[in-house]
Amino acid sequence: MNLPNKITIARICMIPLFMVFLLVEVPLGEVSLFDVTISNSILVATAIFIVAAATDWLDGYYARKLNLITSFGKFLDPLADKLLVAAALIGLVELQLVPAWITIVIISREFAVTGIRLVAAAEGDVIAASNLGKWKTLTQMVAIIATLLHNIPFSALSLPFADIMLYIAAFLTIWSGIDYFLKNKHVILKSM
């Protein structure tokens, strides 16, 4: 297994640890920043999420730099992103920090796109992530980080940055999903 794929697998392995610090009340105390009190457990979860999200860039960088792009990596990398984002959004719904409908829209799109990828794989094709899909993932991750941090530092400015990013992420999720299906409708038609 090459280095980029190992990094991608490491991202997947970070998800359970992230979820523990997000959802289990780990007695680490709390801190006040910009007039917002946040538990240190959430801060640890946020740090884990940021490291996991950064590995998305890192595995792609090494795959391109070292010419280690594989079909396995093309499939696993976006799947790792989906797992990380879905876990975070479900956890944030549990904490009542994200509306359930946005999580349902995002996860539904991800299941649908993964389904198309599986159909393509069965036909011997591998569909890599598009630039629009990469922007979608970036906005989702920024929205999740801002939400995890309870909108710090924007809360001091009364700017709902986390909410704005969440709605942008939902919009890009829908748009990229439509774009994905239109560009790959031949895969669906060929499999029928």
From TrEMBL:
One Pfam family hit: CDP-OH_P_transf
Top-level EC class: transferase
Superkingdom as given in the UniProt entry: Bacteria
Catalytic activity line of the entry: a CDP-1,2-diacyl-sn-glycerol + sn-glycerol 3-phosphate = a 1,2-diacyl-sn-glycero-3-phospho-(1'-sn-glycero-3'-phosphate) + CMP + H(+)
Bilayer topology annotation: Multi-pass membrane protein
Positions of transmembrane segments: 12-29, 41-62, 83-107, 164-182
GO MF annotation list: CDP-diacylglycerol-glycerol-3-phosphate 3-phosphatidyltransferase activity
InterPro entries on file: CDP-alcohol_PTase-I, CDP-OH_P_trans, CDP-OH_PTrfase_TM_dom, CDP_ALCOHOL_P_TRANSF_CS, Phosphatidylglycerol_P_synth
Location in or out of the cell: Membrane
Ion transport as UniProt keyword: no
Main localization, broad class: membrane
Keywords: Lipid biosynthesis, Lipid metabolism, Membrane, Phospholipid biosynthesis, Phospholipid metabolism, Transferase, Transmembrane, Transmembrane helix
EC number: 2.7.8.5
Pathway: Lipid metabolism; Phospholipid metabolism; phosphatidylglycerol biosynthesis; phosphatidylglycerol from CDP-diacylglycerol: step 1/2
Sequence similarity: Belongs to the CDP-alcohol phosphatidyltransferase class-I family.
UniProt function note: This protein catalyzes the committed step to the synthesis of the acidic phospholipids.
Protein name (database record): CDP-diacylglycerol--glycerol-3-phosphate 3-phosphatidyltransferase
Native source organism of the sequence: Shouchella xiaoxiensis
